[in-house]
Design goal:
CATH topology of the largest domain: Glutaredoxin
Helix content: 40-55%
CATH class of the largest domain: Alpha Beta
Low-confidence stretches: 11-44
CATH superfamily of the largest domain: Glutaredoxin
Keywords: Membrane, Transmembrane, Transmembrane helix
Radius of gyration: 23 Å
Protein name: Thioredoxin domain-containing protein
Order of helices and strands: HHEEEHEHHHHHEEH
Organism: Bifidobacterium aerophilum
Number of strands: 6
Strand content: 5-15%
Mean pLDDT: 88
Strand order of the largest sheet: 2-1-4-3-5-6
Pfam families: Thioredoxin_4
Length: 281
């Protein structure tokens, strides 16, 4: 069968139109996905679009925890809150309470980190993220981490904060996400704080329904997710869990999380918790 020149031109035009339509559909889908991701990026309205603007907004929040630094971090060492030890690495942890990966990091590394912290082998810089509130039906992330910040601010013993975090990341406590989310009451969260050793007055204030640090947490979200030094290699955005060592993002090895962490901070496993052994980093 012979195809005429006119038919070939018609087929070519149809092909070009088909490609153009597919390209438009892909563009529309990409825009929709971007808008969806942007809406869920933060609970704040008119979220800043630049890192500097977000940092300025964070610093201008009226009610914020004095214990936190201007990047939204809460520093802990063997000497307590805000007392950085010189000549040891600072481990930064960016966590979200609904994040399954954060729970995995907590369950795997927290005992090691706690031993190193108590021995003065590291400083710990905690950053509380709440940008996955939309994955629960009752602002679980904000409630859980507003309480964490309150405990840090009201209770001088960091062990109580660290114990609370370990408890809410426990496999038999952390709820699922989206359709798998199950309602977690304030009373259930309060019990995790009490079990960690926080006193009743502090816990009651943490769950009094005022959520006094909500705006600060959301502003910290907006700033943190715009910091490119926290992005994983090859990715164009922030995700949790993120761990830094001396302000440099640590590339986790999921196959040997604990071993790769100790290598990154420069300690052998038998040196963990030994005050005379300093990280070789």
């Amino acid at each position: 069968m012979t195809v005429s020149a006119a038919e070939r031109r018609q087929q070519t035009i149809i092909g070009m139109l088909t490609v153009a339509i597919i390209a438009v559909l892909l563009a529309v889908c990409s825009v929709a996905l971007y808008r969806s991701m942007s809406v869920n990026r933060s609970a704040t309205e008119d979220a800043p679009q630049s890192e500097q603007a977000a940092h300025d907004a964070l610093r201008k929040v009226k009610i914020k925890p004095p214990i936190a630094d201007d990047q939204g971090g809460i520093l802990i060492s063997k000497n307590g809150y805000g007392s950085k030890i010189d000549d040891v690495p600072t481990v930064g942890m960016y966590l979200e309470p609904l994040c399954p990966g954060c729970a995995l990091v907590s369950r795997t590394l927290d005992p090691t980190i706690k031993s190193m912290l108590d021995a003065g082998q590291i400083n710990l810089d905690l950053h509380f993220m709440t940008f996955q509130d939309y994955k629960s039906s009752d602002e679980y992330s904000t409630r859980a981490f507003n309480a964490a910040v309150t405990i840090a601010q009201q209770d001088p013993n960091p062990d109580h904060l660290l114990g609370y975090l370990m408890n809410i990341y426990a496999q038999d406590f952390q709820p699922g996400e989206l359709s798998e989310y199950r309602n977690v009451t304030d009373d259930q969260l309060k019990q995790q704080a009490l079990d960690a050793g926080a006193d009743k007055a502090t816990v009651d204030k943490a769950f009094d329904g005022r959520y006094r640090y909500r705006a600060w947490l959301k502003a910290a979200d907006d700033y943190t997710i715009l910091r490119p030094e926290l992005y994983a290699p090859g990715r164009n955005g922030f995700s949790t869990p993120t761990v830094t060592i001396n302000d440099r993002r640590w590339q986790m090895n999921g196959g040997d999380l604990k071993g790769s962490f100790l290598t990154a901070v420069g300690l052998d496993e038998n040196e963990v918790g030994d005050p005379t052994a300093k990280p070789k980093i």
